[in-house]
Automatic annotation (TrEMBL):
Superkingdom field: Bacteria
Cross-referenced InterPro entries: GlpE_sulfurtransferase (IPR050229), Rhodanese-like_dom (IPR001763), Rhodanese-like_dom_sf (IPR036873)
Residues making up the signal peptide according to the UniProt record: none
Residue ranges constituting the Rhodanese domain according to the UniProt record: 8-92
Organism of provenance: Flavobacterium aquariorum
Protein name in UniProt: Rhodanese-like domain-containing protein
SMART domains for this protein: RHOD
Matches recorded under CDD domains: RHOD (cd00158)
Length: 92
């Protein structure tokens, strides 16, 4: 299944790893905000989310870092790139 289909069919959880300020300025409907610098301390919460996780941020850089870290820990996740791209896929 492609990332686009996972997003469109709401198969997982969209996690926005931008700061709270960035998230409050606009985000994907239904996404949750776990800033990149809180990933480690909120790991237990992350483990309980519906997987796969679709990680997004402003450009794909921070979500890529989060994806690398979480996949090393055994979490099923994808780097969705920019939240605007994820938002676009969800709206199709």
């Amino acid at each position: 299944m492609t990332l686009e289909n996972i997003i469109k069919e709401k198969k997982g959880t969209i996690v926005d790893v931008r700061t709270r300020e960035e998230f409050s300025g606009g985000h994907v409907t239904g996404s949750i905000n776990i800033p990149l610098n809180e990933i480690q301390e909120r790991f237990e919460e992350i483990q309980n989310l519906k997987s796969p996780l679709i990680l997004c941020c402003a450009s794909g850089n921070r979500s890529g870092q989060a994806q690398h870290y979480l996949s090393q820990k055994g979490i099923d996740c994808y780097n969705g790139g920019s939240w605007l791209d994820v938002n676009y896929y969800q709206s199709k």
